[in-house]
Amino acid sequence: LSILVLVSCNMTTMPRFLMHINHMEVLDLSNNIIQGTIPQWIWETWNDSLRELDLSNNMFTHMQLTSYLLPYSRLDSLDLSSNRLQGQAPMPNPKQISAEPESS
């Protein structure tokens, strides 16, 4: 399993089976009513594989992170909009930010 899209399924908690998936490239759990904390295992388990993470339009209030620098080496898209998140927002690792100018 590398792509999982469970949009608008009225889920109220993070699916526990996700903890046992070792490789995930795209996870979209948007437009649900998932409450509580975004668990740390999301940031740890898929560090080398996750490209897109969409947790928008839920009811998350916090994030479990050991650092506020996102550890992902391949992450292209992170959408946490329209939640109830409090505290410091996660930032991309400065080593991963490209400073190349866009070509016109």
From TrEMBL:
It is a single-pass type I membrane protein. PANTHER family: LEUCINE-RICH REPEAT RECEPTOR PROTEIN KINASE EMS1-LIKE-RELATED, LEUCINE-RICH REPEAT-CONTAINING N-TERMINAL PLANT-TYPE DOMAIN-CONTAINING PROTEIN. InterPro entries: Leu-rich_rpt, LRR_dom_sf, RLP23-like. The keyword Glycoprotein applies. Residues 83-104 are annotated as: Disordered. This is Leucine-rich repeat-containing N-terminal plant-type domain-containing protein. Coiled coil: none annotated. Keywords: Glycoprotein, Membrane, Signal, Transmembrane, Transmembrane helix. Pfam families: LRR_1. One of its GO terms (cellular component) is membrane. Its main location: membrane. It is found in: Membrane. The lineage of its organism: Eukaryota, Viridiplantae, Streptophyta, Embryophyta, Tracheophyta.
